[in-house]
Amino acid sequence: MDKDVAAGRPAALYVEELWKSQAEALRLSLLAGQGGFRRSIPVADINRPGLTLAGFFEFYRGERMQVFGMGESAFTATLSSAQRMEIFDRLLSTPDLPCVILTHGREPVSEMVEQCERYQVPLFQSQWETARFIGELTAYLEERLAPSTSMHGTLVNVYGMGVLILGASGIGKSECALELLKRSHMLVADDRVEVRHKPGGILVGSGHQLVQHHMEVRGLGIIDVWKIFGVGAVLKRSLVELVVYLEAWDQKKEYDRLGLEDKTTTLLGVAVPEIRVPVQPGRNLGALIEVATLNQRLKQHGVHSARELNERLIQRMSGHTGRARS
Questions:
Q1: Residues 111-168: tens digit of each pLDDT
Q2: I need a surface site. Which of 56, 102, 113, 245 has the fewest CB within 10 A?
Q3: Catalytic machinery residues
């Protein structure tokens, strides 16, 4: 591709959405501060107050959700009522603070409830133990807040590798995916592909929930891949590890015939291997993508067939040149 696909900003996440969508999964109960449901959750990081409860606010991350585990709850119980009022006044008065959550089903001290109501900071209680709760919450937040973009293309999983097929409208992306389905590979999304950038430079693609496992094929119309090919022919999501760009064959254009140089395209700031495949009648695109996928797997394991052949040719020519000079 000729240009970077920039990251799209996810819609703002408010505490109200977290409560409505994850209350059951995270075993949440609302204790106070419902008036602060429109507070924003800007990052997926979680903060445990720790030393902040002892009055050390220098590195306090007030823009994060605050989780009180067994340690924080136990320490809070050792403080006097006046000390708790002072600490919670400083901790909860941060304007960007999203909410506070108590784990292990612990009951809050009265001063916490009072100050949460005063500053309208939502206060929740979860029955999960701290480690499990933070793990589940972080997974949800990373998915919900991940940079994303929507692309016109088809995403298939070939030999366990996510292949994003791109190209102009009508070039044959869906027909190519259909050929791969006949070869026992899997469809992830057709027409519109939602790509998310996960931590660690990982790209994950999926389809829209309403049209999942459906394809539009010109001349056939809408087909249900699940019902035609079976449940094993569809995936809800897949990594995006290879981009195949289909383009109309141009007789005047010089296409790469050796593959010595690895080309990449940038999606959401992540460089992804890319190959361009010229399309003309008689070319079996499904077979070409299968081979391209296997070849990319070899490259991931340090085997570059084109370069190895080139090196052998250079060595052979060097040997012949040496003998000729002697």
A1: 999 999 999 999 999 999 999 999 999 999 998 998 889 999 999 999 999 999 999 9
A2: 56
A3: 152, 173, 191, 257
